[in-house]
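In this supplementary section we document a worked example of the pipeline. Step one takes a protein sequence of length 419 as its only input; no multiple sequence alignment statistics are reported here. Step two produces a three-dimensional model, which step three serialises into structure tokens for compact storage. The input and output of this example are shown verbatim.
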Amino acid sequence: MSADAYAGFLPPVFAHRPDGEDIVIRTFMVGNPLPDHQLADIPAPLQMFMDLVAPAMERAGADGFAHLWLDHHPHEQPGWQLSLAHIGTVEELDAAVAKPLARLGAAMSLTDFETANWDETRPLWRKRAQPVRLVYWGGLGRHVRAIVGHGDAPSFYLPVGAGVRRDQAVATLPLLEDMLGARSGMSSGGLGFENALQIGIALGRAHLIESWTEAGGSDKEPYFRPMQIWHQAWLTHAVMDLAISALAMSGQPPLPTLDYTADGTPQRRKAALDDLSAWLSGLFFSEANPAHRNAFIAGVQNAVWLDPDLQQYVQSQQRGEIIQGLLPYCRWFLAMALYNHLGNLAEDRATPDQCAFFALLIASLPELASLNSLSTRRDIEQHIIRIDAPRAAAAFDALVIPFCDMLMPRLALAASRHQ
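The serialised model returned by step three reads:
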């Protein structure tokens, strides 16, 4: 990407996104365990390392970041953890960081914790890591500076709009998903059904975690804190492209801010989430767009089932009730997708990709096998009713929503980041 790619009205999508397996992360336990889960002052040698590591890595021509975090594992003593991420091999990382790491090791004890790739490390962080400092270098550093330093950032990037200092970890945490997470199809072609569902899930899980934190009280709060921070960051990333689109929509209310303060309460954060939900429903998921609205609401109401992170917290006696709540959405979307696809078949307009996906759907839900281009809406509905709730729920986000995405038009955005 050329140097002036960030000079336009809107910042671009991160270029040259690496595969998760190509990002190596080495993590060290630093110093002695801490007496409790309260955030302590960063030790001076560790602070100096975080100040000096980025320039050293820039000189080495590396791309990556350093993540200093407080460990909140429920069965281990809290303590400092330092993760060093590098797009490349572990040998390249070790060579580039050798001098600053040796200086830190001379002042404090360093114990190898693990070496893993990005995909393996993300579940660990969202369960036990409270981010304290994040510093970036190389292409990642340039992208982070371009987003948080953009002139319109307060209007589209929630942490900056909420007044978070740009050197705080929560200010840049959402950009890890922007740079290294799953690629969103929203920036090219508009807002799809699956986008709407995922935004709903991001909002719903953030609300659930706040409710659990509130119910758990002060004793449990440290153990929910990592999940609350990471999932709020992912929600921030999920709505970024919609916030950018809203910049080009005249006469619309501004994007409401979330609460990123370290002393925020679940009640305050939930109120901010409600404001964001109302804004999203008013601008993008209104009754004028019923299909996208239903996908968004389905995500919000069923996040505990649709997000693998949260399923582990569902009690066995709750599963049946959750699946029954998801069933009407599954039937509605499945009927809509089948009606469109069978109509395309009748008019000889179905694409090979759509036909292949339809075959995959029938393999999972054989009750639909007898449907064809002559089937009526009533035929479709009668066949769908025969599918039992657990299999319908299992197929919802893996098959039904992607099938809708292939068949239904996307919601055009007023503006989007360029690739």
